[in-house]
Amino acid sequence: MPKFNLHERNILSVLYAAEKPLTTETIARRTSISRITARKYLNILQEKGILEFRELNKGIYWWITVDQKIIEKERRS
Questions:
Q1: Can you tell me the distance from the alpha carbon of 50 to that of 29, in angstroms, rounded to the nearest whole number?
Q2: Model confidence pTM above 0.85
Q3: What is the separation of C-alpha 16 from the centre of its chain, rounded to a whole number of angstroms?
């Protein structure tokens, strides 16, 4: 079971609640962190195999790729 820091948990919570891909900008705004910090942690989560992304138009869209049960369990801890 992966362990997530505060920023990672907040990002995952936002994506989990959205139930759809979100842009880096939207994630940053909803987690109250800078776009640069959001991108740092989004990249870390992507490297861990938790998130995927796709560039569309002028935005980068992120979504959760792992079993939602892992995220739900981590959100409660």
A1: 20
A2: no
A3: 8
